[in-house]
Amino acid sequence: MKIIVNGEAVETGSPNLADLLAELGKGDAKVATSLNEAFVPKTLRETQALTDGDRVEIVAPRQGG
């Protein structure tokens, strides 16, 4: 299926958000995620199904002052 990840088209076979993160090499990373502009907490990523055309944002936290 085709989805958009951080503004770029991606072809994936991942059925859910957790699997997509693993596929992209971010499975163990501390990141925030959203699906179609709605925040998805880490605890719900395995049950959050992906469908063709979804928009996923993956954001890594930054430290600073």
Structure keywords:
single chain; mainly beta; five-stranded mixed β-sheet; 5 strands
Descriptive account of the structure:
This protein has one helix at 17-23; strands at residues 2-5, 8-11, 32-35, 38-40, 55-59. With 65 residues, the protein is mainly beta. It has a 5-stranded mixed sheet with strand order 2-1-5-3-4, with no helix packed on it. The longest helix has 7 residues, at 17-23. It is globular. The protein starts with a strand and ends in a 6-residue tail after the last strand. The model has no long low-confidence stretch (mean pLDDT 95).
> Would you tell me the overall average pLDDT?
95
In helices, the fraction of residues equals 10-25%
Structural class: mainly beta
Q: Which residue ranges are poorly predicted, with pLDDT under 50 across at least 5 consecutive positions?
A: none
Q: Helical stretch count?
A: 1
Shape: globular
Characterize the largest beta sheet: strand count, sense, and whether it forms a barrel: 5 strands, mixed
Strands of the widest sheet, in order across it, are: 2-1-5-3-4
Q: Indicate the proportion of strand residues.
A: 25-35%
Q: How many strands appear in the DSSP assignment?
A: 5
Q: Give the radius of gyration.
A: 11 Å
What's the helix-strand series?
Answer: EEHEEE
Straight-line distance between termini = 40 Å
